[in-house]
Specification:
about 220 residues, alpha+beta, four-stranded antiparallel beta sheet, elongated
Length: about 220
């Protein structure tokens, strides 16, 4: 597939022509359907994946439970944190809906990190963001009650995923529960309470924040 730098901006726009040719000549374009796995926890991390379209969930698997750590959006690269981590993915990433990625061999990415300081800074920036997201998840899961966790999640979706106080949720109720570290039944119950209290209007997959101040108070003190 013929690739252009614009498709990967701002990740690869500072590469030299030789470095860009290395990417352009060594990539595979892949499409995924809903719930398909892009990379599997414990598998060899032989590739990283540039997300072209769609949204994905990155989660830790433990026994029969999943804990969603973050959501991956277009313009991000999956697998950077596994480049130097014993050569295996320490998470699973699955597509939430229709999505597409560009798969690039991990060794090529390592070479670009060594050769191009600007590219290396961008890698560090994304890794810093992933670390910050993980710390926020830990605080929410360990320091807040169930209502506070759900409020955190809705605010996260509004601010960081959909960039709007009104959005159509692609996630299932089970996904929301896995993001908040609770049972699906508890997540459904709390969402219903928020709707009945007119804090968030919820109609199926459509969410609209009615009282942001109350939701933020619940996030802070819940």
């Amino acid at each position: 597939m013929l690739m252009t730098k614009d498709q990967f901006s701002p990740w690869f726009d500072q590469l030299t022509e030789a470095q860009w040719k290395l990417i352009a000549d060594n990539n595979v374009h892949l499409n995924y359907n809903k719930a398909e796995t892009i990379c599997k926890q414990g598998a060899f991390a032989s590739n990283v994946y540039f997300v072209e379209s769609g949204m994905m969930k990155s989660y830790k698997e433990y026994k029969d439970e999943n804990l969603i750590m973050r959501f991956v959006k277009p313009g991000e690269i999956i697998g950077l944190s596994s480049l130097y981590n014993k050569g295996t993915y320490h998470f699973t990433v699955a597509s939430i809906g229709q999505s597409s990625v560009v798969s690039i061999n991990s060794e090529i990415i390592k070479q670009l990190i060594r050769e191009n300081s600007i590219f290396a800074e961008k890698v560090i920036s994304q890794l810093n963001q992933e670390t910050e997201d993980s710390l926020e998840r830990i605080i929410s899961l360990t320091q807040k009650q169930l209502n506070g966790r759900i409020a955190d999640a809705i605010l996260h979706f509004a601010h960081n995923v959909y960039n709007s106080d009104e959005f159509s949720m692609q996630l299932t109720r089970r996904d929301i529960a896995d993001f908040c570290g609770m049972s699906t039944e508890s997540a459904i119950r709390i969402l219903k309470e928020l709707h009945n209290d007119k804090i968030v209007n919820i109609e199926g997959k459509n969410f609209k924040i009615i009282s942001k101040q109350l939701l933020e108070n619940l996030s802070e003190f819940g």
